[in-house]
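[recover] target loaded
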C-alpha cells in the first residue's frame, strides 16, 4: 500500500462504508497513518525505556529531549517514560510497530527477536574495545541491521549508545577460566550468554533479574555478571565479595523510532532526530565512563575486591568456539567480519 493512500473498503465501527467526504475528514484528522503532517504543527513524542530514572542512559535521554526541542525550535517535545512505565523491552518494540510509543531506547533484545541473524552483535568478546564496537555499529554492519529491522518490523535505528562493560561477580577469587569449573552462574535467558559461559567451564543458570539477589543470597547460584551500575544499584556487594574484571561484553542501547511516525515528520525534523540521537549518544558515552569509575570506587568502599585477569585467556576460547554453536542462526561469516574490522 502506498504511503498516505487509504485501503479500499476501510470501514466505520458501525459497519458502513465511509463516504468519500467522511473519508477525507478522517484523513485530515490523522485517522489513517503514514502521510506527512503540517510541518508547523507542534507535536509530542513518547520515549519509552525500562531503565530507572537515574544513571547515564536516563540522563542522556533527558539531554536527547532537550536537544530535539532546541533543534526543532519547539516543534517537537519528547516526553520521557522511564522505568518500564510503558512496558518491557519487547512490549516497547511492539509499541513502535503499532504506534502506541514513538521512540524507544532499548538493548539488543529487538535484534534477537526480529532479526536473530544479527544477535551476534551482543555475543561475549565479539568486540575488542569501544573503538572497535563503534566502527561496527556505525559502519556497514550497523547499517545492515537498520535495513533489516526496517524491512521486517518498520523500526528505524536513529543511533547507537554505549553501555558499560559487564563484569563477573563471585564469592571466590577467579583468575583463569579453570577457576570457573562448575561455578553456578546466573545469566540472562539468552542463548549466546549460556553458550559462552559453558565454553569457559561455568554452569550457567538462567534466572530472571528480579530473582537474582535472593538466588545469590540463598546460594542457588554462586555468581552473576552485569555492568557495574547494576552491581552497585542492586546492592550485590551484600551477597558477593569479588568483582572479576572480565569485561566480557561491550554492548549498546539503540535509540529507535517507528518508521510510520518518522515518515510523518518533515525532512528537517527527521534530520533533527538523527543528529540528536548521535549527539546525545556521545554525551551518554562520557557519562558511562564517568559512572563506571564512580561505581568502582563506591563498590570498593563497600568492601568488594576487584580482581584483574588476563582477558585474552577468557576471550580466546569463546572466539574460537562460539560461532560454530550458532551456525545456521547467525548470518554466515558475520562473526569473522566483525573480528576483521580494525
Amino acid at each position: 500500500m502506498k504511503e498516505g493512500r487509504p485501503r479500499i473498503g476501510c470501514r466505520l465501527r458501525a459497519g458502513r462504508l465511509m463516504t468519500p467526504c467522511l473519508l477525507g475528514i478522517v484523513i485530515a484528522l490523522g485517522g489513517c497513518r503514514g502521510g506527512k503532517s503540517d510541518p508547523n504543527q507542534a507535536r509530542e513524542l513518547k520515549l519509552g525505556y525500562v531503565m530507572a530514572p537515574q544513571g547515564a542512559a536516563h540522563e542522556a535521554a533527558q539531554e536527547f529531549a532537550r536537544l530535539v526541542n532546541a533543534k526543532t525550535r519547539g516543534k517537537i517535545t519528547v516526553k520521557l517514560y522511564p522505568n518500564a512505565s510503558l512496558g518491557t523491552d519487547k512490549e516497547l518494540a511492539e509499541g513502535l510497530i503499532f504506534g502506541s510509543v514513538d521512540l524507544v531506547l532499548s538493548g539488543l533484545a529487538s535484534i534477537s527477536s526480529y532479526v536473530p541473524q544479527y544477535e551476534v552483535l551482543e555475543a561475549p568478546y565479539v568486540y575488542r574495545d569501544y573503538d572497535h564496537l563503534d566502527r561496527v555499529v556505525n559502519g556497514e554492519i550497523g547499517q545492515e541491521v537498520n535495513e533489516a529491522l526496517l524491512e521486517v518490523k518498520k523500526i528505524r535505528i536513529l543511533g547507537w549508545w554505549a553501555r558499560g562493560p559487564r563484569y563477573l561477580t563471585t564469592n571466590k577469587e577467579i583468575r583463569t577460566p579453570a577457576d570457573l569449573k562448575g561455578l553456578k552462574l546466573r545469566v540472562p535467558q539468552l542463548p549466546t550468554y549460556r553458550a559462552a559461559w559453558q565454553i569457559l567451564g561455568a554452569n550457567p543458570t538462567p534466572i530472571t533479574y528480579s530473582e537474582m539477589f535472593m538466588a545469590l543470597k540463598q546460594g542457588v547460584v554462586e555468581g552473576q555478571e552485569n555492568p557495574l551500575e547494576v552491581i552497585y544499584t542492586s546492592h550485590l556487594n551484600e551477597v558477593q565479595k569479588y568483582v572479576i574484571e572480565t569485561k566480557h561484553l561491550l554492548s549498546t542501547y539503540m535509540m529507535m523510532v517507528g518508521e510510520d511516525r518518522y515518515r510523518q515528520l518533515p525532512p528537517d525534523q527527521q534530520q533533527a532526530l538523527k543528529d540528536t540521537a548521535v549527539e546525545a549518544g556521545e554525551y551518554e558515552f562520557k557519562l558511562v565512563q564517568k559512572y563506571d569509575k564512580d561505581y568502582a570506587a563506591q563498590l570498593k568502599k563497600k568492601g568488594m575486591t576487584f580482581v584483574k585477569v588476563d582477558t585474552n585467556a577468557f576471550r580466546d576460547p569463546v572466539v574460537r568456539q562460539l560461532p560454530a554453536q550458532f551456525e545456521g542462526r547467525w548470518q554466515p561469516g558475520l562473526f569473522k567480519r566483525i573480528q576483521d574490522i580494525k
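[recover] notes: The chain has two domains: 41-163+251-292, 166-250+294-340.
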